[in-house]
Write a structure and sequence with these properties.
six-stranded antiparallel beta sheet, alpha+beta, five-stranded antiparallel beta sheet, Phosphatase 2c, domain 1
Length: 243
């Protein structure tokens, strides 16, 4: 199992409010997390960095290699809960952090199984020669409109309200996360990314770069370069894990 990650402010913003971390929990287990902060230049980067740090440290504190599926879910929910409380508490205590929050998507990969947790609209994909599959579901106004039949899926990426999310870490006292389980065979890649990437590239373009690119080692840089060549109005972050 190999992993790579990159983050960039993009072409418009001067500050990068995205954060990510890759952590080897044990010989057979990898933890990756991406957060996309919000709340303005004063606090978005604080929210994302704080959420990543608290989430990862709580997983490291509670992780054991013998954990069953139910315990892993409990651990991930607990880490999200702690990250949410920490960001919310900081926003409540300090006026300059008022209103800050962040998305969170994380993958815990153990052997041939991955457990994905997400809040907001940062995404996880499974990619191989057979195609690309979005593992997470966006917590966004646009996604709700698509599910209700009010907006065609092909228009969702360019819809004016695309950036309005319905769940975030740190904006409320309690937040609900979604958890997904997926089996991953040899040759499958997992991609975690902020919306700064998937707003600039469609799924088939991402599939082509991951599967047919010159090397997996440079895939994150190629994805980032494509987003920036198209103007990248938002921060761009991607983490690639090759099984």
């Amino acid at each position: 199992m190999q992993s790579w990650g990159l983050t960039d402010p993009g072409c418009v913003r001067t500050q990068n409010q995205d954060s990510y971390q890759i952590e080897q929990l044990d010989r057979n287990t990898l933890l990756c997390v991406v957060c996309d902060g919000m709340g303005g230049a004063r606090s978005g980067n604080i929210a994302s960095t704080l959420a990543v740090d608290v989430f990862v440290q709580e997983i490291k504190r509670t992780w054991t290699a013998s954990m069953e599926k139910e315990k892993i879910e409990q651990m991930l929910r607990g880490a999200v809960k702690l990250a949410n409380f920490t960001v919310y508490d900081q926003a409540a205590q300090f006026e300059e952090f008022s209103g800050m929050g962040t998305t969170l998507v994380a993958a815990l990969i153990r052997g041939k199984e991955a457990v994905i947790v997400n809040v907001g609209d940062s995404r996880a994909y499974a990619v191989d020669s057979d195609g690309i599959r979005q593992l997470t579901k966006d917590h966004s106004l646009v996604q709700m409109m698509v599910e209700r039949g009010e907006l065609p899926p092909e228009l969702a990426r360019s819809y004016p309200g695309k950036n309005f999310i319905t769940r975030a870490i740190g904006t409320e006292t309690v937040v609900e996360c979604d958890i997904f389980h997926t089996k991953i065979d040899k040759g499958v890649c997992l991609l975690l990314c902020s919306d700064g990437l998937c707003n600039m590239m469609d799924d088939q373009e991402i599939l082509f770069e991951v599967v047919h690119g010159v090397s997996k080692q440079h895939c994150c840089q190629r994805l980032l370069d494509i987003a920036k060549n198209r103007g990248a109005p938002d921060n761009v972050t991607c983490v690639l894990i090759q099984i």
